[in-house]
Structure formats: structure tokens, C-alpha cells
Amino acid sequence: LLVxxxxxxxxxxxxxxxxxxxxEKKPVLYVPRKCSYTNRLITAKDHASVQINVAHVDEEGYxxxxxxxxxxxGFIRKKGASDAAFNCLCxxxxxxxxxxxxxxxx
Length: 106
Hints:
Layout: H1 2-9, H2 15-20, E1 33-34, E2 41-42, E3 50-57, E4 63-72, H3 74-79, H4 82-92
Antiparallel strand pairs: 1-2, 3-4
């Protein structure tokens, strides 16, 4: 409800307007994310989850406007495997070279 009220405060809609809108025109209030490593759905109550945006750089080492987002769920962080998961995801995205043989299976 708090997200709903915050969304309404940022738009020109009233609560009554949202309830009477056609189904295909209703604004999306919450889009759940998935963990990049385990593909687990990250719920609204998973406060341990993080999203890390890795910036892309040009040939001179300057940051460009693009980035690659990685989302890690609280389950992976609680197990203490977030550093290995992050290395694996970066390796598969081609951002780093092979780091100690980390793979998605391992």
C-alpha cells in the first residue's frame, strides 16, 4: 500500500481513477526481480537482496553511459556465496576473464 500511495503521489491519478481504469491501461505498481545467479524470484520482503550495476568503460578506461545490472538474492548472500556468484556472472557476461575456474555449475 505504501508503494501504491507513493506512486499516486508522483502522478496525476487519483485512487478512484486507478480502480476504474481499463485493465490494459493500469500502471504497473510493482515488478518483481529475479536473482541473476539462481533465477529465484526476489520477493518484496527480501531485504537482503542487492542489485549491482557494473559500468562499461571505453578503450581509455572512461565510464560510458551503459552498464550491466546483476541482482543477487538474500539466499545467496546468506550462504556467503555472493562473491563467487558475482565473479561467475561477470565472467559469463564477458566483463572479466576466468577467475579460479568459477562456473554456473560450480
